[in-house]
């Protein structure tokens, strides 16, 4: 009694393949004739037909079993041929997609347009720099004329940076807040509203004392540095105005403190009367401190205004316009040159990529043609294999049939089976030979290399043309070494 019969059948069934081919990665897998013979029950049918002396001795046609074998093999041939045609169609599509003719045509067109596009960018940059250079020339002439008229050729303007200017403005704000705070404490003594009222009056005095002095120094007193005698007089009178304003304002604030402590009404009239009758008659030491402190705040604002910018009025503004135009022109020229360099480098990088792409496509083309040739050879070998398999299966059937027959066998049992071959037709009219393709790619590579040189030459010419604008609109001694 067989052990584990059911388990053995399950084990064998799982180990058997689910098809009649040997496991392989070939597109046309070889037949396993032993497996096929078993699945078609060739030996069993041969024995049955042989015992019945089928086919008869005078039969000229294949019997049902032989026809089944032949039909199965021919079906495999047809299926394999369809597989071959599908693969050949895929190869043909891949070859068309390589599109060498189209790429070569586009490369030729690009060679002409690339230089034109680059030169268009050069022209646009030159026009923009031309305008900027004219603006620079205008500010340069303005500065030169200002220097000559005011005899300032031997020194440059003292420009303040953004940080320094901001600090000077913040210093004025600091003075305003500080004086308001200090004076508010002193003026709160006689004010009905106390500290709040004192701070309010103190802010009004401090604003005129600090901000007024700053503006008078910035726009008036600095006129003393002018070459014109009339403008010097403006500066001189501005200085006298500041001195009188600083003394009068701070004395008035000191008198206001003393009078507000005793008088409840008409404080303004009383302050004005005392200021005219006895201006320096301060009875309280705190009032004197208030006067001196206010005057010192005014002096600090005066100095800040005088040195806010260049001492000579108008020089800093004129020089700043020139410097801004020069930096703008230099920055624009640098930007334009960098842009052209970026365009050139991007162009050359793409050219190198095109050359590499063509070489890669050439290798791909050769690989496709080789694979196509290999595929047709494999199909031819597969047809031979199918013919051999059919002959082997027929031989198994006939040998088994012959062994059990009691009558003579048919004559066609001795004849060899010949499989009708399917012919493969490949259209190679659009194929590139590797030699021809290599020569064409080499020619294109030479053209592209020449294109890179033309772009590089155009870049050098553009840089030279940009620098020539400096000679076309030369600067005066302000910006040139001459």
Automatic annotation (TrEMBL):
This is Transmembrane protein. The chain crosses the membrane at residues 169-188, 200-221, 233-256, 288-307. Keywords: Membrane, Transmembrane, Transmembrane helix. Residues 32-48 have a biased composition (Basic and acidic residues). Residues 21-60 are annotated as: Disordered. The keyword Protease does not apply. It comes from the Bacteria.
């Amino acid at each position: 009694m067989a052990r584990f019969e059911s388990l053995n059948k399950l084990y064998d069934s799982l180990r058997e393949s689910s098809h009649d081919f040997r496991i392989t990665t070939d597109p046309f897998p070889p037949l396993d004739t032993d497996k096929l013979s078993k699945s078609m029950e060739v030996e069993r049918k041969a024995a049955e037909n042989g015992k019945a002396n089928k086919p008869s001795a005078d039969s000229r046609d294949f019997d049902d079993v032989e026809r089944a074998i032949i039909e199965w093999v021919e079906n495999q041939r047809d299926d394999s041929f369809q597989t071959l045609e599908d693969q050949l169609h895929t190869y043909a599509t891949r070859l068309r997609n390589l599109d060498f003719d189209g790429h070569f045509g586009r490369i030729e067109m690009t060679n002409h347009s690339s230089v034109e596009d680059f030169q268009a960018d050069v022209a646009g940059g030159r026009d923009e720099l031309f305008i900027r250079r004219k603006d620079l020339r205008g500010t340069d002439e303005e500065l030169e004329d200002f220097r000559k008229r005011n005899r300032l050729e031997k020194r440059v303007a003292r420009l303040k940076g953004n940080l320094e200017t901001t600090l000077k403005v913040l210093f004025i704000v600091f003075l305003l807040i500080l004086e308001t705070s200090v004076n508010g404490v002193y003026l709160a003594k006689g004010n009905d509203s106390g500290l709040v009222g004192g701070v309010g009056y103190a802010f009004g005095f401090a604003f005129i004392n600090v901000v007024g002095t700053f503006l008078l120094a910035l726009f008036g007193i600095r006129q003393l540095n002018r070459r014109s005698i009339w403008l010097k007089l403006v500066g001189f009178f501005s200085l006298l105005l500041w001195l009188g304003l600083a003394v009068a304002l701070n004395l008035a604030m000191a008198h206001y403190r003393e009078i507000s402590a005793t008088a409840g009404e008409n404080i303004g009239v009383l302050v004005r009367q005392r200021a005219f009758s006895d201006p320096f008659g301060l009875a309280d030491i705190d009032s004197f401190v208030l006067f001196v402190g206010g005057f010192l705040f005014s002096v600090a604002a005066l100095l800040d205004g005088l040195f806010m910018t260049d001492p000579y009025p108008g020089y800093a503004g004129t020089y700043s316009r020139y410097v801004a135009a020069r930096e703008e022109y230099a920055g624009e020229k640098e930007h334009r040159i960098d842009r052209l360099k970026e365009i050139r480098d991007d162009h050359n990088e793409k050219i190198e990529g095109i050359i590499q792409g063509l070489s890669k496509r050439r290798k791909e083309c050769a690989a496709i043609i080789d694979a196509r040739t290999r595929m047709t050879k494999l199909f031819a070998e597969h047809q031979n294999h199918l013919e051999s398999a059919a002959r082997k299966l027929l031989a198994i059937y006939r040998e088994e049939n012959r062994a059990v027959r009691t009558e003579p066998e048919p004559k066609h049992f001795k004849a060899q089976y010949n499989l009708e071959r399917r012919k493969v037709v490949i259209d190679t009219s659009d194929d590139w030979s590797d030699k021809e393709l290599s020569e064409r790619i080499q020619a294109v590579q030479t053209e592209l290399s020449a294109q890179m040189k033309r772009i590089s030459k155009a870049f050098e010419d553009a840089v030279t043309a940009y620098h020539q604008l400096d000679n076309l609109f030369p600067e005066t001694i302000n910006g040139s070494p001459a």
